Amino acid sequence: MTANAQATSRATRVLVLNSGSSSLKYQLLDMADGSRLAVGLVERIGEDSSRLAHTPLATGGTKREITERIADHTAAFQAVAAELAADGLGLDSPELAAIGHRVVHGGNQFTEPTLITDEVLAEIERLIPVAPLHNPANITGIRTAQALRPDLPQIAVFDTAFHTTMPEHAARYAIDVATADAHRVRRYGFHGTSHAYVSRETAKLLGKDPSEVNVIVLHLGNGASASAVQGGRCVDTSMGLTPLEGLVMGTRSGDIDPAVIFHLARNAGMSVDEIDSLLNKKSGLIGLCGDNDMREIRRRIDEGDEAARLAFDIYVHRLKKYIGAYYAVLGKVDAVAFTAGVGENAAPVREAAVAGLEELGLAVDAELNAQRGDSARLISPDYARVAVAVVPTDEELEIATQAYALVSA
C-alpha cells in the first residue's frame, strides 16, 4: 500500500465549521465512531473583546479561553488551528479527511452535500440576495479554510437541501410565476440538517426504517421551524424564502399578513430596512413580552406576568396550527418530535402544544415529559396512537456524516 493510500485509509476525521458574520463555531469529529475530539467557538470577531473558547474532548482537557482582539475570520481560523495543534489534533494531521461547512442557503440547485469548487462557490455567491445575512459569512469561512488547507476536500452541507424534496405545490407561492422565477421567490426551508437528523433518529426510536415513518419535526430554538417528513422525505416546512416565515420565534414574527408591511410603510412612515429589522429582530417573543428566553418567560408566568402568559399562548397556538396542518398534509402521522433548545428542554411547551389534540391520537405523559435527559426518548403514554418524542438534535454530526460519506465515496 502506498503512503498516500495508507493516509487515506486512516483519514476519518472531519472538521465542521459554522461561520457567522462575527463568529466561528467548530467541532472536530472522528467518524470512525462519531466521537467529538474538540469543540469551540470564536465570537465577536473584529472587536477588541474577541473571545475563543476551546474544549479538547479527546484528551479530557478543560476548556481554554483566549480573550484578545481577533481581527477577521482568517485570524480566527488560525487561532482555532493553533488550539487544535496544541492538543495533537492539528489540521496537518493525515487523519483529517475533510472540512464540512454549514451553508445556510443552497437554493433549489444543491440537493445534497457538495464538493466546493469555484463554480459552486460562485453559485453560493449568486444566492446572497435571498440570504444576505448568512451566505456571505458562510463564504468567508469557506475561503478562509481553503486558503489554509487548499489540498483538503471542502464540503458544503446546505440547510435548504433536505427541503428540496417538497413538491411544487408546497414550494411555490401563489404569485406571478414569471416574477417568482426571475427573482428566485419560492419556499426553501431551513434547519434542514436538524430536520433530517431528527426524523431519522425518531424512526430509529420507533424501531423502524425512515421510509416507513411519517414524522412532524418541531425544531424549537431561538429560530424555530416545523417540517412534515413522509417516509424520510420532506414534503412541507414552515420557513420559506427566508427564515422569517412560520412559527413564532425568539425575535422573528413568523407568519404575518404581508399587508402589514405596506400598512407600516404608508401609515408609520417606516422604511423597508426598519420593517425588516422589526420583523426579524424585534418581534416574536421579545416583541410580545421583552424576553426571548423561554425559561425567563416561564418564570414570569409563574409570578403572574400577563404579558409573558400572552406571549406563551401565542407561541403555542402557532405550534398547534402547524401540527394540525401537517397532520392533514401527511394523512397519517407516526410521531411528533420536539428538538433544539426549547423543544428539548421546555416541558411546558411540549405539554401545551399537544394538549387538546387527543382526538388526533396525541398525548403526553406528565411524568415522562418532566424527565430530563440527553438521549432520544418517548414522552407519550403507551395508549397514544401517535408517539410524542424528544430527540436531541446534532447538526454538527449530521454535517460531518454527510461530508464524510461524500469524501469516502
Helix content: 25-40%
Beginning-to-end CA distance, first to last residue: 19 Å
Major β-sheet profile: 8 strands, mixed
Mean pLDDT: 93
Strand content: 15-25%
SSE string, helix = H, strand = E?
Answer: HEEEEEHEEHHEHHHEEEHHHHHEHHHEEH
How are the strands of the biggest sheet laid out side by side? Answer: 5-4-3-2-1-6-8-7
User: Which ranges are low-confidence, i.e. pLDDT below 50, for 5 or more consecutive residues?
Assistant: 1-8
Number of strands: 14
* Count of individual helical segments: 16
- Quick one: overall form? globular
As a whole number of angstroms, the C-alpha radius of gyration is 22 Å
Helix-strand category: alpha/beta
Describe the structure.
The protein is an alpha/beta fold. It is 39% helix and 19% strand. It is built from 16 helices and 14 strands. The protein has helices spanning 3-9, 73-86, 118-126, 135-148, 168-171, 177-182, 192-205, 259-267, 272-281, 284-289, 294-302, 306-330, 340-345, 347-354, 366-370, 395-408; strands at 13-19, 24-30, 35-43, 51-55, 64-67, 96-103, 114-115, 154-158, 214-220, 224-230, 233-237, 335-339, 377-378, 387-390. Strands 5-4-3-2-1-6-8-7 form an 8-stranded mixed beta sheet, with helices on both faces. It has a 6-stranded mixed beta sheet with strand order 11-10-9-12-14-13, sandwiched between helices. It is globular. The model is unreliable at 1-8 (pLDDT under 50).
